[in-house]
Write a structure and sequence with these properties.
The chain is mainly beta and 126 residues long. It is 0% helix and 48% strand. Strand 5 and strand 6 form a beta hairpin. The chain is globular.
Length: 126
């Protein structure tokens, strides 16, 4: 059974930073690309960032490009999302997800991911 557990969410002021973590178990983590999505209150879940199995390739939504950085540590079975210069519109539940293969999809869809965590709440105050 694959388990993804996010952590690191919380309340932060606009302009601040947070680092989210997602620990994986139950599957050979280093074989799979990983994504972060987010869901704001009353809105659909949307793509944020993705990273290939090796960590050498990354991909970002335009809304977070230049502010967020996705990374992974395959020895620790963990993927990270460093979020800087946070804005109130970044407020959402953040979910990590495991892709079905080693490389991410450049047209990522919620339905295209194999496994999901339960999410961690990020609240950015103005």
């Amino acid at each position: 059974q694959v388990l993804l557990v996010e952590s690191g969410g919380g309340l932060v002021q606009a302009g601040g930073s947070l680092r989210l973590s997602c620990a994986a178990s139950g599957r050979t983590f280093s074989n799979y690309a990983m994504d972060w999505f987010r869901q704001a209150p009353g809105k659909e879940r949307v793509f944020v960032a993705a990273i290939s199995w090796s960590g050498r390739s990354t991909y970002y939504a335009d809304s977070v490009k230049g502010r967020f950085t996705i990374s992974r540590d395959n020895a620790k079975n963990t993927v990270y999302l460093q979020m800087n210069s946070l804005k109130p519109e970044d407020t959402a539940i953040y979910y990590c997800a495991m892709a079905p293969g080693a490389y991410y999809n450049r047209n990522p869809e919620v339905g295209g991911m194999d496994y999901w965590g339960k999410g961690t709440l990020v609240t950015v105050s103005s």
